[in-house]
Design a protein that fits this description.
372 residues; mainly alpha; three-stranded antiparallel sheet; 50% helix
Amino acid sequence: MPGVYRRGSRYVVAYRDPSGTQRRRTAKTLAEAWALKAELTTDVHRGEYREQSRLTLAEYADEWLRTYTGRTSRGIRQTTLDEYAADLRGHILPVLGRRLLSDIEPRDVKILAADLAAGGRRPATVRAIMSPVKALFATALEDGLIRINPCAGMRLPGGTTPDRHARALTEDELAGLLAETPVEWRILVRFLSQTGLRTSEMRALRWSDIDLEARRVRVRRRFYMGTEDAPKSRYAIRDVPISKTFADEMRGYRSRSDYPGDGDLVFCTKLGTTLDSQNFLNRVVRPAAIRAGVSWAGVHTLRHTCASMLFRSGWNAKHVQMLLGHHSPAFTLSTYVHLMPDDLPEPVFREDLVSDQAAERQSARGRLRLVP
């Protein structure tokens, strides 16, 4: 085929773009070179030719982070962009950053994701790290910088199967954990297991956010990446009910607190500053969990436990979704119902209710006939 020749260990494809400028591309094999030549020639004739970008992934990532506004009408929050930047610079660019954007293939992305999973990371963590990669390549395709999105249709390792950490405590296990928790921290463990608040939401909670008369906790902010910020999403803005008994416990806790003012943090350090969630896990929850015989339990387990107890007590998926601040009941069900097989109440069928009511009426008429 004219315009295809070998140079060293690769094959060169020479062609002219729509402006008449001669350009060259390379291929690994002769068959790939022939196919590339035919494809380029056809694209030029059809007016579909797009010159491949000479940007490296690292160069494009810097541009993308400056200009990316999200892929929906809601846009994207700055904290999310900061997470994307940290994931790209910490995990992606050291591996693929020097590669040309147009040279990265689906197998390169799959290998990267597999290596991340092989490092012991949970499937949810791998998916979070790969999220900016998928968004970046989707934008590059829209911008005409690449012909194929290497992330299109990619299945990440681990899928959505819950891992061993996605478990809930039974009522007995929770009681055991509380018994092993230092006295000064039990109120916080109780709070998280009853309200299901995320750790970031609990850390930003102030006394003005708790109405003990109405027994409601207003979630309006979170402490994230060193600063107070709006909740994770609009669904996370919510009012969470607490029991009368626990409201009384919270009154007592506030009266004993060194920081009881409306603007003070509800749960804080001895200096009144924001709690460190990792310290709380390592110094309080994990040792107590080991002593209680539930060494797998962590802080997030308390959120799972809250959901499990609500389902067991008869709450439906919509109610639990609203309390936990999820975006949909379907997500709540897929995430939490698997935790404990007996969490859902026994179903009641209408025909059984009708039959039972008819039998009760018949029995009542029989009793009336027996009265002299």
